[in-house]
From TrEMBL:
Keywords on record: Carbohydrate metabolism, Cytoplasm, Hydrolase, Magnesium, Metal-binding
Chain sites annotated for binding Mg(2+) 2: 112, 115, 283
Single GO biological process annotation from the record: fructose metabolic process
Family assignment from sequence similarity: Belongs to the FBPase class 1 family.
Enzyme nomenclature, EC number: 3.1.3.11
The gene coding this protein: fbp
Protein name: Fructose-1,6-bisphosphatase class 1
Length: 336
């Protein structure tokens, strides 16, 4: 049986869906960078890459060595090809400017280079999340600097999104707005091979994911909903639910894409300036695009995540995503 590599899939997309050649190139470059990150992650203690730096990122989080390395890998891979107007990342305060010696292109790339990095040192799955937007016209200032405003587009404007998961297998999950495809890395051949065609999130589920240790900080609708989940067959929902929490969004979302489920990171009362923990531009938006393309749903409890008009590059948002019926139920509780 002939195998469909990522390259072949993208070339066929160009023929059948008019995917522009520079977008195809962009995805290939991101995938190549993810292979390199996968390799670095897999070396672990042997590569001297575990542990933390002495630095904090813009969110005030201590950076792991692999956070910084993964960020550098993505920047270096993408800056020279002429397909991007700029980049932004969880690990960088401001937009990354394409060096003047390279041509600029039509797209913006936004990423979380290594999501779930609290799991790196304990050898649990982590991943890279990315989102692709078109750069608006006239987004460069007079001194040829790309401003943050260029990136502040709602998730509905994403032209592509995906994540790589570095787990027992390395996989790349991708949407170009026409369903979700999954590619598994063939390490001997060095290529991503299409293994999961047409992924669908089941509309109902009996599995949920939430960090229960934050329970006392949640808002009333989430308290009510999780109480109902925990009360099982005897409760108003009339069935028993199972819980999983990996603390790697990529791994939790990957499970949901594979067998359904509900992922929640609600806003809570700890810090009013932080509506939720997860970041809109490079976590919630790409994951919501993927989940919707697989038939699931994603809201912040009040509205569809992809409709949110961003106001800053690193803004946070509450996230409820996964199987449609449960996302609709918990969203409905916020409106009651
Ligand atoms: P990170 O981008 O700094 O790794 O943080 C995001 C991660 C998500 O992958 C995960 O869902 C969440 O943070 C886990 O949070 P908690 O530590 O509260 O369990
Ligand atoms: Mg993250």
């Amino acid at each position: 049986m002939s195998r469909v590599t990522l390259s072949r899939f993208l070339i066929e997309q160009t023929r059948s869906h008019n995917t522009p050649a520079d977008l195809r190139f962009l995805i290939e470059v991101v995938a190549r960078a993810c292979k390199r990150i996968s390799y670095e992650v897999s070396k672990g203690a042997l590569g001297g890459v575990l542990g933390s730096m002495d630095t904090e990122n813009v969110q005030g989080e201590v950076q792991k060595k692999l956070d910084v390395l993964s960020n550098e890998i993505l920047l270096e891979a993408n800056e020279w090809g002429g397909h991007l107007a700029g980049m932004a990342s969880e690990e960088m305060d401001k937009a990354y400017q394409i060096p003047g010696k390279y041509p600029k292109g039509a797209y913006l790339l936004v990423f979380d280079p290594l999501d779930g990095s609290s799991n790196i040192d304990v050898n649990v799955s982590v991943g890279t999340i990315f989102s692709v937007l078109r750069c608006p016209d006239e987004c460069f200032s007079q001194n040829d600097t790309l401003g943050e405003e260029a990136f502040l587009q709602p998730g509905t404007r994403q032209v592509a999104a995906g994540y790589a998961i570095y787990g027992p297998q390395t996989m790349l999950m991708l949407t170009l707005g026409d369903g979700v495809k999954g590619f598994t890395l063939d390490r001997e051949m060095g290529s991503f091979v299409l293994t999961h065609d047409s992924i669908q999130v089941p509309s109902s589920t009996a599995e949920f994911a939430i960090n229960m240790s934050n329970q006392r900080h949640w808002e009333a609708p989430v308290q009510r909903y999780v109480d109902e989940l925990l009360s099982g067959e005897e409760g108003p929902l009339g069935k028993n639910y199972n819980m999983r929490w990996i603390a790697s969004m990529v791994a939790d979302v990957h499970r949901i894409l594979t067998r359904g489920g509900l992922f929640m990171y609600p806003r809570d009362a700890r810090d009013p300036s932080k509506p939720g923990k997860l970041r809109l531009m490079y976590e919630a938006n790409p994951m919501s695009f993927i989940i919707e393309q697989a038939g699931g749903a994603a809201t912040d409890g009040r509205q569809r995540i992809l409709d949110i008009e961003p106001t800053s590059l690193h803004q946070r948002v509450a996230v409820f995503l996964g199987s449609r019926e449960e996302v609709e139920r918990v969203t409905g509780y916020h409106q009651a």
